[in-house]
Design a protein that fits this description.
Blueprint (H helix, E strand, L loop, with lengths): L6 E5 L4 H12 L3 E6 L2 H13 L4 E5 L5 H15 L4 E4 L14 H29 L3 E6 L12 H21 L4 E8 L15 H9 L9 H12 L10 E4 L6
Helix pairs in contact: 1-7, 3-4, 4-5
The protein binds 1,4-dihydronicotinamide adenine dinucleotide.
Family: Belongs to the short-chain dehydrogenases/reductases (SDR) family.
Pfam families: adh_short_C2
Protein name: SDR family oxidoreductase
Length: about 250
Amino acid sequence: MKLEGRIAIVTGAARGIGYACARRFAEEGAKVVLADIDGDTLRSAVDSLVAEGFEAVAQTADVSRYSDLQTLVDAAVAQFGRLDIMVNNAGIARTQDFMTISEEDYDAVLGVNLRGAFFGLQIAARAMIAAGNGGVIINMSSINSRMANPSVATYAISKGGLNQVTSTAAVALIPHGIRVVGIGPGTIATDMLNMGFLTNEAQRKMILSRTPSGRLGEAEEVAAVAAFLASDDASYIVGQTIFVDGGRMI
Ligand code: NAI
């Protein structure tokens, strides 16, 4: 098991990619703290892991709130003694007409996807430095971090910024033995696709025609890469965002 005894937090873990990451980490031997703003779905997700014998706890948190992130990291350390892996996965998207993007939309999307990940990283890194064992921080980016798509402009801007958080923080934190890396999923079959990415047959055809693999990705395929990146097998991968996209970006 690649992650035996490691302590991991995954945000946005009530469903989708975050849940798949938490489950895969647990299967690899980690003790996992699942965090999400949707407390009810989160609790049933954690209950199902615990029922299968995994060590998992739930912490309701809104990652756009600094105090929630601090409470989340404090809770993980209080429960398990330290923190080894942080996955800043929670994300939202809003479709917008570029010229009428509102301040509210802009702040909401960047508040979760960029601000939430930045402070999640910073607070987690402080706990890792205090424990002195290093760690791994994974930021969940997107192919949209590199593609210009005005209909999801705020989402694309937030993920582009997140890639820069990953590389900048990687340089700042590697002296402490903390590896910061990113994952850029392509179109993965989760609830997020309803947020404007895949809402009709024409969009599906367009996406599949531009995806060499000819299919959508599964959350478990992203989680497998997260488990690899979180493990010592990826010990020399620092600051990169790895695309898991069926070939979409090539
Ligand atoms: P999802 O919509 O299925 O799950 C996202 C989870 O994040 C939900 O459980 C939601 O309640 C939670 N969340 C939303 N706002 C939150 C907040 N403020 N605080 C805490 N939790 C919050 O989405 P999915 O697909 O699992 O996405 C996970 C990550 O992967 C996101 O960062 C997304 O941008 C990224 N991604 C997803 C892709 C896809 O095709 N599904 C493609 C590229 C990136």
